[in-house]
Automatic annotation (TrEMBL):
Gene3D superfamilies: Spore Coat Polysaccharide Biosynthesis Protein SpsA, Chain A. InterPro entries: Glyco_trans_2-like, Glycosyltransferase_2, Nucleotide-diphossugar_trans. Pfam families: Glycos_transf_2. This is Glucosyl-3-phosphoglycerate synthase. SUPFAM superfamilies: Nucleotide-diphospho-sugar transferases. It comes from the Bacteria. Its EC number is 2.4.1.266. It comes from Halothermothrix orenii (strain H 168 / OCM 544 / DSM 9562). Belongs to the glycosyltransferase 2 family. Residues 4-126 form the Glycosyltransferase 2-like domain.
Length: 209
């Protein structure tokens, strides 16, 4: 039984190291794979320095394309998907996500922030379906063929597929949060990216897949 952690990352040099360091300490995780989605900062070097296997995409293709690349190269039985901007990740969060999937209780878990920062907790309370923190059976996610162009709609595309062909469960991730786009990229660029995210989500949501 093998487990890979997969982190799509676009300009996450400030936050990715502790995420990788925590993952590397968890015995059941065999490899940590970072797909650097055309970052213009030092994400690749920082991730490599922290012990991750790094695959760099020359152009920024969006979260869906980065995840798709990772899914293609991973040969493990289970994939733990995490964002590169998490703050406060612990081994307990990792086991909460992985255990139900490894135990074959469900095909996928989706982690929902709780008791962390008010704003990110609220966003996930309103829409837990968007969370990027997940564990899933590799053979199931490899069957989804439309992730490449999904961008930020990638979670909705995965949800649609798993709801149709598998089972899923939401798990609480206490005291975990992430940086919001506006915090990472400044208000203007962050807001534009937020609008792009809603557009990507809407596109996938209304498309029949
Ligand atoms: O073009 C992109 C945009 C985002 N990401 C990564 O996808 C994850 C979630 O993105 P982001 O933090 O922007 O989303 P938020 O959590 O703020 O909605 C993070 O690890 C990003 O680095 C990516 O690989 N390519
Ligand atoms: O939770 C949400 O509403 C959004 C936006 O989070 P923020 O408002 O930037 O904290 O973040 C999630 O949605 C994205 C699209 O599905 C995912 O790619 C992210 O992983 C997830 O954190």
């Amino acid at each position: 039984m093998k487990v890979s952690a997969l982190i799509p990352a676009y300009n996450e040099e400030n936050t990715i190291k502790p995420v990788i360091t925590t993952l590397k300490k968890v015995e059941i995780i065999d490899e940590v794979v970072v797909i650097d989605d055309g970052s213009t900062d030092n994400t690749s070097d920082v991730a490599r320095g922290a012990g991750a296997r790094v695959v760099r995409l020359e152009e920024n293709g969006g979260k869906g394309a980065a995840l798709q690349k990772g899914i293609e190269i991973i040969e493990s039985d289970f994939i733990l998907m995490l964002d590169g901007d998490l703050i406060g990740l612990t081994r307990e969060h990792i086991y909460r996500l992985l255990n139900p999937v490894i135990a074959e209780e469900v095909d996928m878990t989706v982690g929902v922030f709780s008791e962390g920062r008010g704003l990110t907790d609220l966003a996930q309370f309103i829409s837990p379906h968007l969370s990027g923190q997940r564990a899933i059976k590799t053979r199931l996610i490899k069957k989804i063929d439309n992730l490449n162009s999904a961008g930020y709609g990638v979670e909705i595309a995965i949800n649609k597929f798993v709801k149709k062909y598998g089972t899923l469960k939401y798990v609480d991730l206490t005291d975990l949060t992430h940086l919001m786009k506006e915090e990472k990229r400044g208000f203007a660029r962050g807001f534009i990216d937020r609008m792009k995210m809603y557009y990507d989500i809407l596109k996938v949501f209304i498309k029949k897949i």
